[in-house]
Write a structure and sequence with these properties.
heterodimer; A: 589 residues; mainly alpha; Leucine-rich Repeat Variant; 34 helices; flat; PP2A_B56 (chain B); protein phosphatase activator activity (chain B)
């Protein structure tokens, strides 16, 4: 270390601190981001005695600088001399945990949580816990909010008397005067419960949960829902009814839609936490109510959970519950007034067929699918089409194909290009399920029409789609059905369509194989090298580069090389560039 | 935004007259979103309706004005109870008869409270407050447009407004009645009631917020025991708006009420009020939707300064801290607010903030956005500000000179260049000697800055070299240690095996 000591004297702390105090925020920010460099230059001793006190004293800066500082300090342990000295980092982080700006505070808490693990149990009690207590009893809500996130990291590693103290402080924060702190406490309640001993969960956490879940502010109540789910997973089955169910039932019927939304959103987790019996007696009716809620937001959240909820129902009564309780609600949702609800449902409804089996699907679900396939909202139709594979497994897709076709055609011609793009992406899947005959008859022309769409993204997707179709149906099919049409476009008067031919060839050459490429595609590409539009010519060069590896060497030497050499002397610099690139990549020089 | 056709009488003093957002920022050459988007009027209804299980059939009661005096109060009470029935307004043809009966009853109640004396007797208070609570307190429905932009989009209007308006009108008349007795009302208009009232300020319907504003102002004026609580809850709403959600429709209305509350603060200012200024009002400037309530906010800030000049430094430094970095539209608003502040600043306070302030103003002058530069340069057209600058020319001129000189040569906008020439001319007339000195030393200063820049780069390069060397030696050290350990382990295991062999 002797050599290193010598370096230190080169950098008086004042110079470094000047950098951290520069008038220009951007420079200050840069310096803070390289704080580890400065600390390394100073060495661990002077970092502890000079740099950290400076940082603690001067915490009044732009939030952006403070954010960077809070982040840096989380990985500073080595720079202050290892775990033994890690508590030296606490004072600046404590100040940062009290600032107003949420992102800075959150980052400081994150760093504090991180370095708490590096404290020895003794240091934790001597340095860390007192910090948490100071924050928890701070004047302004910001420090109390920050404290909420720190209880769970120190609780497991301290003595039982300190534990009691920590529980007391958490209790106080749960009934804090300001809703901001109660929200923070509610959002950490589940996490804190997980590190507590079961007896204390029952004696301490349950009353807190009950109180927060009936807070006067809905923003607090809705956070309690999530905590409730975590708590339910911790409790033995026989205690659930007495300790949490009443509160959770009340949340599912809360007068604020935000709370009900939260219940719907956490429904699968809740279902897992309370087990099959309570699911049957309590959750089924609650779920029905959520599916019928008066607010569309809640219905949509619940509709999203239909599949998972049904899947996780106890096997012995699954089918009965779905048929008698869930399906009637689902039927109503199919004609909901709100499109988000319908589209949420459409994204999961198909998977019910796997659960219900062939007969029920044909009798009950199929009519619903058909209605949704005709829905006015494209998203609903798309969601149905994108999940066709579930139905295919159970009843085969033929049952649907009559209705499917008009829906696909309509989506394929939708005015919004994003909708067209989405349906293109399902084409290979559909083609696989509907079979080659049906495809040739009904869908092939659509796929070709997309190649001359006026939006590039659609033409690009259409090209890629062709490649996937050839992968499915094989090279012979390609040669008979699509290659002639693609090559025909090479003579189109629109240069964009001529380029599409090239893009298709790029995509298809590999899957079609050497013979088709050499015999049918290559001549067309070579012919296009004399196109009058430069963009077409340089794309010829790029295509040649792309299909080169598929060709044999005689074709490369005899046919490709002369054309590329000619293009390399083109007067357009882009054509030249790509021709030279192709020559070098194909090693034709 | 639509304003209610009939403004509630004697609304709180409106601060909007003092300041208006310069309309120039609207002419940026780009079509506004609203012009492209088809406007559509939406209306929504609260989720309260579903909680009424069985619909009661209303029957018309005799008119209040025909009632004999002895039965008046009883009838009044019955009408109040009748008005507790809620109707579904999304279905506009449902129960038209019932709706009409309730509307007529509400109209009568409003008129009776407003015109006749002696109606408001003690037993009516709980009934009246109950009727009001049942009608107005409801969970506001989710916004139909998740990206609702109050500046661009049409607000969703409350469907049940035909009744709701009359209920609000009744409440207002009730509070303003000469018979109104705060000592009786405070039993029913309590903290819980006020909290629910405040939550309604999030309503998207501007007509509703307008009523709420006047009503809350009356409550604040008449029920002294609730004042501190109301201020605290408004604080909470603002803090949540600033730090948690960035969504609350009634910020402007609440600020408007606060504007008149601040006006009435006693001197010296309590620390609670100063804290409100520094920790709530100033951070409110960071909100994305500042433009919607900036006029009201700036009014509050200036009110504070006029109350107590010693808060000036907190205000200016606070604004400088939250100065917008990328949003030029907000920057123009900040500059507008600074000018309002400078208009009433005390010269002694000005001296305390002039340095950081004029550094920021210089930065604004060099903004490539001409509206920002222009707004800053307009300060020199304000006579009071000009006199402050003149008094402190020795400090201010050196702060801005470099910027003025540079921008006068390179700004793209001709208007800005001519404005700068005017400012430079003003300075020359103020203090020609200082001006000449600065002109002469401009080049030298530039050189100095460049040199400093180089030194900084050098310092960091050295530091990073050092870091590399340190890290290298650290890894080497740890490798050595590891080797050492391994060697120890092998010798140990060797000795163990040899020990095992011997046995």
């Amino acid at each position: 270390m002797a050599g290193a000591e010598g370096d230190d004297s080169l950098y008086p702390i004042a110079v470094l601190i000047d950098e951290l105090r520069n008038e220009d925020v951007q420079l200050r920010l840069n310096s803070i981001k390289k704080l580890s460099t400065i600390a390394l230059a100073l060495g661990v001793e002077r970092t502890r005695t000079e740099l950290l006190p400076f940082l603690t004293d001067t915490i009044y800066d732009e939030d952006e600088v403070l954010l960077a500082l809070a982040e840096q300090l989380g990985s500073f342990t080595v720079l202050v001399g290892g775990p033994e000295f890690v508590h030296n980092l606490l004072p600046p982080l404590e100040s940062l945990a009290t600032v107003e700006e949420t992102v800075v505070r959150d980052k400081a808490v994150e760093s504090l949580r991180k370095i708490s693990q590096e404290h020895s149990p003794v240091d934790l009690e001597v340095h860390f816990v007192p910090l948490v207590k100071r924050l928890a009893s701070g004047d302004w809500f910001t420090s109390r909010t920050s404290a909420c996130g720190l209880f769970s990291v120190c609780y497991p590693r301290v003595s039982s008397s300190v534990k009691a103290d920590i529980r007391q402080h958490f209790r106080t924060l749960c009934s804090d005067d300001t809703p901001m702190v109660r929200r923070a406490a509610a959002s950490k309640l589940g996490e804190f419960a997980k590190v507590l001993e079961l007896d204390y969960v029952k004696s301490d956490i349950i009353p807190l949960f009950t109180a927060l879940a009936s807070d006067e502010q809905d923003s607090v109540r809705l956070l309690a829902v999530e905590a409730g789910v975590s708590i339910a997973t911790l409790l033995p089955q026989e205690d659930l009814e007495a300790l949490v169910m009443a509160t959770l039932r009340q949340a599912a019927e809360d007068k604020s839609w935000r709370v009900r939304y939260m219940v719907a959103d956490k429904f699968s987790e809740l279902q897992k936490a309370v087990g099959p019996e309570i699911t049957k007696t309590d959750l089924v009716p609650a779920f029905q109510n959520l599916l019928k809620d008066c607010e569309a937001e809640v219905r949509a959240a619940a509709a999203n959970k239909v599949k998972v909820f049904c899947e996780n129902l106890p096997e012995d009564s699954r089918e009965t519950i779905i048929m008698t309780h869930i399906l009637p609600c689902v039927k109503e949702l199919v004609s909901d007034t709100n499109q988000h609800v319908k589209s949420a449902l459409a994204s999961v409804i198909m998977s019910l067929s796997t659960i219900l089996g062939k007969d029920n699907t044909v009798e009950h679900l199929l009519p619903l699918f058909l209605v949704q396939l005709k829905d006015e909202c494209p998203e609903v139709r798309l969601n149905i089409i994108s999940n066709l594979d579930c139905v295919n497994e159970v009843i085969g897709i033929r049952q649907l194909s009559q209705s499917l076709l008009p829906a696909i055609v309509e989506l394929a011609e939708d005015a919004k290009w994003r909708v067209r793009l989405a349906i293109i992406e399902y084409m290979p899947l559909l083609a696989g399920q509907l079979g080659v005959e049906f495809f040739d008859e009904k869908l092939n022309s659509l796929c070709m029409a997309w190649l001359i769409d006026h939006v590039f993204a659609i033409r690009e997707a259409a090209t890629c789609n062709l490649m996937k179709l050839v992968e499915k149906f094989g090279a012979v099919w390609a040669q008979n059905t699509i290659v002639p049409k693609v090559l025909g476009m090479a003579n189109d008067s629109n240069y964009l369509h001529r380029m599409t031919t090239l893009f298709c060839i790029n995509a298809l050459s590999e899957v079609c194989g050497q013979e088709i490429t050499t015999k049918h595609m290559l001549p067309v590409v070579l012919k296009m090298s004399t196109d009058q539009v430069a963009n077409v010519r340089f794309n010829v060069a790029r295509s040649l580069q792309k299909i080169g590896p598929v060709l044999d060497s005689s074709a490369l030497q005899a046919e490709v090389k002369p054309v590329l050499e000619k293009l390399a002397t083109d007067q357009d610099m882009d054509v030249k560039y790509f021709a030279l690139e192709a020559i070098s990549v194909l090693a034709l020089a | 935004m639509e304003t209610p056709t009939k403004l509630p009488p004697s609304s709180p003093s409106s601060p909007t007259t003092g300041f208006s957002v310069p309309s120039a920022e609207k002419v940026d050459g780009f079509p506004r979103r609203s012009m492209r988007r088809a406007r559509q009027r939406r209306s929504h209804s609260s989720s309260q309706f579903r909680y009424q299980s069985s619909q009661v059939e209303l029957t018309p009661l005799p008119l209040l004005k025909d009632a004999p005096v002895a039965e008046l109060h009883d009838l009044f009470c019955k009408k109040l109870q009748q008005c507790c029935v809620l109707f579904d307004f999304l279905d506009c043809v449902a129960d038209l008869k019932g709706k009409e009966i309730k509307r007529a009853a509400l109209n009568e109640l409003v008129e009776s409270v407003a015109t006749s004396r002696g109606v408001l007797i003690e037993p009516l208070y709980p009934e009246a407050i109950k009727m009001i609570s049942v009608n107005i307190f409801r969970t506001l429905p989710p916004s139909e447009n998740p990206e609702f932009d109050p500046e661009e989009d049409e607000p969703a209007l409350e469907a049940s407004w035909p009744h709701l308006q009359l209920v609000y009108e009744f409440f207002l008349r009730f509070l303003e009645s000469p018979d109104f007795q705060p000592s009786l009302a405070k039993r029913y208009v309590d903290q819980k009631f006020v909290l629910q009232l405040l939550e309604l300020f999030d309503s998207e319907d501007p007509r509703e917020r307008e009523y709420l504003k006047t009503i809350l102002h009356r409550v604040y004026g008449k029920l002294l025991g609730l004042r501190a609580y109301i201020r605290k809850q408004i604080n909470n709403i603002f803090l949540r708006f600033i730090y948690e959600t960035e969504r609350f429709n009634g910020v402007a209305e609440l600020l408007e009420i606060l504007g008149s509350i601040i006006n009435g603060f006693a001197l010296p200012l309590k620390s609670e009020h100063k804290q409100f200024l520094v920790r709530v009002l100033i951070p409110l400037h960071t909100a994305k939707s500042l433009s919607i309530f900036h006029a009201q906010l700036a009014y509050c800030v200036v009110q504070f300064m006029e109350k107590d000049a010693t808060v000036t430094e907190h205000i200016i430094r606070g604004l400088l801290r939250y100065w917008p970095k990328t949003c030029t539209q907000k920057e123009v608003m900040f500059l507008g607010e600074i000018e309002e502040i400078l208009d009433v600043i005390e010269p002694s306070q000005f001296i305390r903030v002039q340095e950081p302030l004029f550094k920021q103003i210089a930065a604004c002058i060099s903004s490539p956005h001409f509206q920002v530069a222009e707004r800053a340069l307009y300060f020199w057209n304000n006579e009071y500000i000009l006199s402050l600058i003149e008094e402190n020319c020795q400090v201010i001129l050196p702060l801005v000179f470099g910027t003025l000189y540079r921008v006068s040569k390179e700004h793209w906008n001709q208007t800005i260049i001519s404005l700068i020439y005017n400012v430079l001319k003003t300075f020359m007339e103020m203090n020609s000697k200082l001006f000449d000195d600065l002109t002469a030393s401009y080049k030298v200063e530039k050189q100095k800055e460049l040199k400093k820049e180089k030194e900084r780069a050098e310092l960091w390069r050295n530091l990073e070299d050092l870091q590399d060397r340190r890290l290298q030696s650290l890894t080497e050290a740890s490798r050595n240690q590891k080797n050492l350990q391994e060697r120890e382990n092998t010798t140990k295991s060797q000795s163990e095996t040899s020990a095992a062999n011997t046995t």
